[in-house]
Amino acid sequence: MKGAWRSTAPPRGGHRRRRSVLACLSVLVALGAMVGIAPAARAAATLVVPRDYPTIQAAVNAAASGDTVVVRGGTYTEQVVVSGKNLRLRGVDEDSVIIKSPTALTPYAVNAHNNQPVTSIVRIAHGARVRMSGFTVTGPVPCGPLVSGVVALQAATLDLTDSRITDMRPAPSCPADQADGRGVAFGLPPFIRADGVAGSTAFGSVSDVRVVRYQSDGINVNGPPSPPQGKPTRVTVTDNVVVGGTQIPGQQFGVSVGSAVATVTDNTISRSVCTIPGCGPDPINDIQSGGILAAFTPPGSTFSGNHVSHTDIGIYQFAGPNCCRVTRNELRNNRFFGIVIQDGDGRADHNEITGGRVGIGVVADAVDTKAILRDNDITRTTMAPVRELQCCGFKATAVVERD
Predict the structure, then answer these.
(1) Residue 250 Cα distances to 5, 117, 180, 338, 350, angstroms
(2) Residue 74 pairs with which residues in a beta bridge?
(3) Could you tell me what percent of the chain has a pLDDT over 70?
(4) Which residue in 391, 304, 314 sits closest to 357, CA to CA?
């Protein structure tokens, strides 16, 4: 029918206008390349295990910095390493997402004192920045190596929350001198070498984590005494539950701080009791376990608001003069001492200490030691609220003050 079909021919001059538009676009593209207009930023991705990848390590390998790895319920028997990436690792529920130690673990370092291999189930390394939550990390671990459930080292940053670390110890058949295991670790002391380097720093936090059934330390914070760029390991440890108790004889500490700066607050720590030969109440001649240990620790750490019970020594400051502020902790029924300050001046204030043999011990057997003890509430000790112990020509002085 006439008029039923519209003409498809372009209007007069249309070809010329189209050529002009295309020429302009070509010029704009060329100008953009000349001035360096960046392409659109890559959107962060979410990788789901096992939907997208069968293992956590496969997802970590595939992820780019900024991505999130979500892990659904299940038991994943594998060793996980995050190196140099910024990732979010999120388990959907700590009760159902389990990372289990394989029978054999690949070492990443060695203890120079005894050639003991050092390894872990989860390792955050080489400057990686990782937020991790919602997992159970569990053993048993191999006999022989020093194994950590989760470790950060080589200037990496780890923020670990809402998780559980358990059974960081080998089978009961492992000889005591080959049994070792830590729950969470930040940094390495100088006698442990990783990639040929003595010691290592790390940074971050651990909070709302439950650490139970470990062989040596529940949470260990450490580093070299003189770290690169002068930045020591620095970690916040808060609102965790750490429960000791060994099936293989050992020496335990709930939270151990070495050459590092730590803020340790509002944790509940219990049952760190020494069970090896040589254990006893004398800090000069015997061996003890403890709730919180600061050994060779530089100034800057704070231990406050912690609840420590049923250990040998509630809080033990050793060879770290004026390293720490020890304040407002509740120390109950620790069998030998509530607090010990040994071989380095220190202070403790406003702590509540109940039970045990001695409330606060000031001990000198390598250097003269003076402790300022202010407004500590000490009750129901069987020997003395405060006791000075000294040896070998060194003097221990306890200065008790009241506000």
Answers:
(1) 94, 19, 9, 21, 32
(2) 97
(3) 90
(4) 314
The token pair that represents 398 in the structure block = 């306890």
**What pLDDT sits at residue 268?**
98
- Structure token pair of residue 298: 């530089």
- At 232 the three-state DSSP class reads coil
Over the chain, what is the mean pLDDT?
92
Give residue-wise pLDDT tens across range 232-254: 999 999 999 999 998 999 999 99
Residue type, 3: G
Rounded CA-CA distance 107/105 in Å is 6
- Give pLDDT, residue 40: 59
Residue whose entry in the numeric block shows the structure tokens 């209007």: 11
Amino acid at site 73 = G
Helices (H), 264-378: none
C-alpha separations of 248 from 72, 81, 165, 245 in Å: 34, 29, 18, 9
What's the pLDDT tens digit per position in 252-302? Answer: 999 999 999 999 999 999 999 999 999 999 999 999 999 999 999 999 999
Structure tokens at 119: 């390894």
Max alpha carbon distance in the chain (Å)?
Answer: 122
Tokens of 98: 């389990």
Pairing of the two strands 109-111 and 116-125: antiparallel
Q: Which two tokens stand for residue 176?
A: 């005591």
- The pLDDT assigned to 39 comes to 56
Tens digits of residue pLDDT in 148-167: 999 999 999 999 999 999 99
Computed on alpha carbons and rounded to an integer, the radius of gyration of the chain in Å comes to 28
pLDDT at 403: 80
Which residues, at least 6 apart from 262, have a Cβ–Cβ distance to it below 8 Å? 221, 234, 235, 236, 237, 255, 297, 301, 302
In 3-state terms, what secondary structure has residue 166? strand
Inter-residue contact 273 to 335 (CB < 8 Å): yes
Which amino acid, residue 364? A
Q: How many CB atoms lie within 10 A of CB 277?
A: 8
Q: How far apart are CA 150 and CA 119, in angstroms?
A: 10
Other Cβ atoms within 10 Å of 65 Cβ, number: 12
Other beta carbons within 10 Å of 202: 25
pLDDT bin (cut points 50, 70, 90) of residue 30 is very low
Between β-strands 358-364 and 337-342, what pairing exists: parallel, antiparallel or unpaired? parallel
pTM of the model: 0.90
Three-state SS at 346:
strand
